[in-house]
Amino acid sequence: MTNKCIHDYDIKRWAMKIARQVGHDTFKASNFWIRNFKKNGIVSRKITKFTTKKVTANQIDIFANAATFVGEIAEIIRSNSPECVFNSDQSGFNEEFHSMEEPLTHKERR
């Protein structure tokens, strides 16, 4: 079975169609009706990640490139002393440009 996203407007459309089929021509699938309908164990979930077919098709290449990268980085880490290696995922780095010259200003000095 393929997972499909079902939105509130899909439920409203289906409810309106069924209501018309059974003769309830005045039925309105309001937001209040949707909220009550969902109390039957239906939940809304936010989609946090979209995966395309292209991404899943390229997974073998992605894993191969990742393994190559890890091997290259491991070699670089081994060739340097531990105090020269920083984990940028878990560290905050701020780069500031320092100059011995005086900073530029728009105001005249007194």
Describe this structure in words.
The protein has four helices and no strands. The protein has helices at residues 8-21, 31-38, 53-57, 59-78. The mean pLDDT is 78. The termini are far apart. With 110 residues, it is mostly helical. It has a domain at 57-82.
The H-and-E topology, N to C, reads as HHHH
Helix content: 40-55%
The tally of strands reads 0
Report how far the terminal alpha carbons are from each other: 78 Å
List low-pLDDT spans. Answer: none
Given the structure, what is the number of helices? 4
Shape annotation? elongated
Structural class: mainly alpha
Please report which band the strand proportion falls in: under 5%, 5-15%, 15-25%, 25-35%, 35-45% or over 45%. Answer: under 5%
User: Major sheet: size, sense and barrel closure?
Assistant: none
Q: Could you tell me the radius of gyration in angstroms?
A: 30 Å
What value does the average pLDDT take? 78
Labels describing this entry:
4 helices, mainly alpha
Summed up:
The protein has helices at 8-21, 31-38, 53-57, 59-78. By secondary structure, it is mainly α.
Ordered list of secondary-structure elements with their pairings:
Layout: H1 8-21, H2 31-38, H3 53-57, H4 59-78
